Amino acid sequence: MDLLKSIKMQFILMINSISFKVGFSIVMIYVLTSYIVSLISNMSTDIAFMYSAHALFCGVEFSKLRTIFEVVFPFLVVFPFSFSYLTDLSVKIHPYLLGRMGRRNYFAGKIVTNFIGSFIIIFVPFCVNLLLCYITFPWNNNHIFGDYNALNYASELLGTNVTINTVQSGVPFLKLFLYSPLAYNLMYICIFSVFSGLASALSGIVSFYIKNYKILLFIPVYLLFYIGNFLNILSVRFDKYINFRLMDYIYVNPSFGRSFVVPLCFVVFMLVASFFSFRYACKKEEL
Amino acid sequence: MSIWGKITRTISIVPITFLFSLYLLISDKQDISIGSMLTHRILGQVGGESSKAFVLVLSNLLYLVLFNIFFGNIISEEFRFSSVYLFSRLKNRKVWFYKKASEMLMIASIYTLLFLGSNIFICMFCSIRKIEINDIKVFLVLFGLITMILAITTTLINLVSIRLGSTTAFITVYICVVILVFISLEHENIPFLGKYYYTRVFNPLSGVALNLSENLIAQCIILVYYLVLITLTFILGGNYINGIDIALIDCESV
To answer: pLDDT (tens digit, 9 = 90+) per residue, A172-216?
Structure first.
């Protein structure tokens, strides 16, 4: 119960903080701009040739502003609550909070709130974009994966057009995509939000190890993405190509080589790091 | 920040550059000039043969991001914690800011020198050719350009940081940088301006848009443009520092 109280208190603190508002506003501006860009680019297009609503959603790889968001994303996930521990230290409030809710509840609450905060800043704006796209654009079969029922469509979905040796090809969760592209997009929003939450928790636990220089908290998640891109370049030399680009796992796209081991390793790493950092932080405050 | 902190952060770019170039070091040697290899390692090429242009690319901004993060609060932090003590003794706040901004410029130049030096070393290792006079020219142009970009962006982060906190300042300036880089990459698709090749020059992050060694006059204009930009940043920053109320310190957004 104390943990729930701690999470509730820190959650209220988070949604009133300027960093959460900044992060949320940036993502909201991005999704609305992306929607407007889609509107403008389809202004004089015949409705029969217009892409389907699910293809114009901003969580799809071919979204026009995606490259901008992709490079800003590693910094955005840090915003909601990762700085909170350092803020508590700088305003000297943490002894009172620790005394009130206990060390374990305080730090566990921080990790959980970090996750929830970053989950929200992605989930809500992306759902708004999806809703706007489905209200505005037609629900036809003009897919990004090729001409409907044509040979290129089937080969893209099944991955038979991939000519290199790789661990995976074709669109993942194909049955769901064929059953409902809307449900498919919603599932990817959830994956994106969970990933964002985990990345935020990572920067949150790094904050337990430093005492000042909040700005340094931007480095871990950015480096994680950069290392992923770097490993992806190296991976071309392996016998079997594995896609290490983390962004490819959280966007709707037809890229190949996506192994479930990569996100699994990330989740396991996060759980282990969270556990040890939690213990470290509790022990540090004991002294 | 202590002097050792500054030195460590400045030097850190060398191992990072080598670490992320491992795949090049284990590759076969290539028959490409060192200057060309260096340019393609740092910049991206856009446009066809007639309108060839080198611009900064979004996927290769690590050196810029790290510098911005490492030194994005060096001036603002001192301002927050020592301003009352300092400015009650100093006659002119502007002079203090000019000194700090010049120090930033100096750190940026050393950082760039180390970054480009490491890259030159990697290129020398990966190329079968030797350094020529043209390669040194490319090195100098890149040195000037990157130093200016690093100094301007980081000084801006520090200035915004005094008002909004280091994190918000960083993300604000970074988003501006990303948008400017995106515009320089998509320049040809901009409705009216896209037709005019030379309008690229007005984008501060597309300063090397013109061919590095083929258009001397344009390069001179860009050099003057960057000098004007950095002078403006210094002067406006000095005026901004002069007008800030030093009695109110917001510890929450440090």
So the answer is: 888 998 899 999 999 999 999 999 999 999 988 988 888 777 778
Residues in B touching A214 (Cβ below 8 Å) = 165-167, 254
ipTM for this prediction: 0.80
Among chain A, residues having any CB pair with chain B shorter than 8 Å are 18-19, 22, 26, 67-68, 70-72, 75-76, 78-79, 83, 87, 90-91, 212-219, 222, 226, 229-230, 233-234, 237
Question: pLDDT (tens digit, 9 = 90+) per residue, B40-51?
Answer: 888 877 776 666
Domain ranges of chain B: 3-242
Least CB-CB distance to B65: which of A90, A216, A222? Answer: A222
Cut 0.90: pTM above it: no
Return the closest-CA partner of residue A214 out of A199, A204, A222: A204
Helix boundaries (H) for B12-132 = 13-19, 22-25, 34-42, 62-71, 74-87, 93-126
A137's CB contacts (< 8 A; 6+ apart) are: A38, A42, A50, A51, A52, A53, A56
